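Hi Q.,

Before the meeting this afternoon, I wanted you to have the zinc ion prediction in hand. No need to reply - just skim if you have a minute. The sequence and ligand are here:
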Amino acid sequence: MKIYRVKRNRPKKERLILSINPKKGNRKLLRSFSWAGLPLLALSAIIFFWHDKPRPVEPSTYENITSQPQPAGEIKAAPLELPQPEHVHTYDIQPGDNLSNIFDHFEISHRTMYHILEADESLLALDTLRPGNRLTFRMDADGEQLEEMELFIHAGNRVIYRRFDESSFDYQEVIKEGEWEQDVLAGEINGTFYKSAKDAGLSERETMQIGELFDGRLNFAREIRAGDRFQVIRSQQSVNGEMTGQSRIEGVRILRRNHIHNAFLCENGNYYDQDGESMMRAFMRHPTAQRFRISSSFNPNRRHPVTGRVAPHNGVDFATPRGTPVLSTADGVVTRGRNHPFAGKYIEIEHGTKYVTRYLHLDRFLVRRGERVEKGQRIALSGNTGRSTGPHLHFELHVRGRPVNPMTAELPRAASLPEEDFERFNTRVAELVDLMEQNEQRLARLVDSEP
Ligand SMILES: [Zn+2]
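Predicted structure with the ligand bound:
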């Protein structure tokens, strides 16, 4: 995965806080103060929490957060002009927020918001703002025009929208792989698998992924009974010590009375059972039953015909007449069914942990968010919604969060593990099973030692 590094000037205030208030020292400070030190304590608490969780900054405090813009890697010996103040606003997304309210809050025009949404059409990152996300707005010297907006999704993923000209923005995605740490979760079925998995500490999303892994092989509602056990090894991502909320399932075992169902993640990104048989059903190449002419190909370096700058086309366009049934190209779960000013009505489907497909400019949805769909199932009728020059279907395939050419990408073929991967896969399976067994023994000892 490619890692982009972005150089930018940190506002002076933040720099100051970092230098006088390293977190640990601050905590110690808070503990050692007596009541007499209350005003100081309050002040350091404010600074501490401010640093910990940026709050919206009111325009009236802008003098405090000015910084001197300096081109990276270049120091001017004698600046001829006075430094221009830079206005920065930070906003933490709250439940129920939408982009338009946030722009209103900072008195940034909707025209500018549409220019940003236009840049986001090929990413659609701003369409799922949720608590934990943070927006940072950097205005020009007069505080009038938005120069840059950063969307902080989590410590491993940020998107920066930069003004390109009067009426357009560019985007840059910053992805950090960080570290993945694994833990073992286990439990006994008591009620439904979903409830028991939640009790064991698995998130709803992880539980859904497990359900999907065994889809067609194990019916969780009918075949799982009280007393059956499950063991899961999960990895969670952190970047610079901060949890990102991203996780992946490394291995699962479901132990029924007389049968063990299992799935393990191979280095190639696919899941196999312990005999190396694929857990993934095959993908279709095309999202329609009929073949349609490609009116625009996948092209990450496409140049805008007028401005000449790079405007990636992250999918492939098919010349489908309005009302053409659109099919899910694989089994999966509908994660989005939304309406975007530029992408139009669109659907996103997650297929396991590695693959995502998107279908844009739709006329009508035939499925809902959260619904499970099968390969070949009708999910929508194609259309001409959003910014579209005529009826067509824009189809995207993402592999591990990156758009790829859906016409040439290697698709999961429901094949068994390639022979050259067998040795390493077996070693990994043995390692994961060993962790699960050790955990079972630990749990058994805990039960034994109970009075
Ligand atoms: Zn397109």
